[in-house]
Design a protein that fits this description.
By secondary structure, this protein is largely without helices or strands. It has one helix at about 25. The radius of gyration is 51 Å and the shape is elongated.
């Protein structure tokens, strides 16, 4: 047995009995009509839904104008400029000073409510413990 070493297919198909036997019906190109009743009208199921000649827009947005990409139509509002020396129109703004809120009252002071202050204890003067007059 000789074979080409450079061959990418190394098969044993040239040995007798190494391939399965091919029957005659596979070799002859003829239609098989056993158990087929497609030539009899009404012997098979009908189509469940008959198609209508109208476009289907369910699950698509093709009927809404402007939702598809416009490949060949490019519209820009920018003015042409020199790419080596571009001029950009930057957004402008004016500074608005914040309004100072007017003072109505202090919500943390409750001195005007009677009994809202703690009662101050009387403070007595401390004793003089370092005097030595009685000696």
């Amino acid at each position: 047995m000789r074979y080409n070493i450079l061959s990418s297919k190394l098969t044993n198909c040239h040995y007798k009995g190494s391939r399965p036997r091919v029957w005659a019906k596979q070799e002859i190109n003829r239609p098989e009509f056993n158990l087929v009743n497609e030539d009899i009208q009404g012997s098979g199921p009908r189509m469940l839904h008959i198609g209508l000649n109208k476009p289907e827009y369910n699950l698509s947005n093709e009927d809404i104008e402007g939702t598809k990409a416009q490949i060949f139509k490019f519209v820009t509002k920018r003015e042409p400029s020199n790419p080596l020396n571009p001029v950009y129109k930057l957004p402008s703004f004016t500074i608005v000073p914040p309004e100072v809120p007017r003072f109505i009252r202090d919500g943390m002071q409750i001195d005007d409510i009677e009994g809202s202050k703690p009662i101050l204890k009387k403070k007595f003067a401390p004793r003089d413990t370092l005097n030595c007059f009685d000696i």
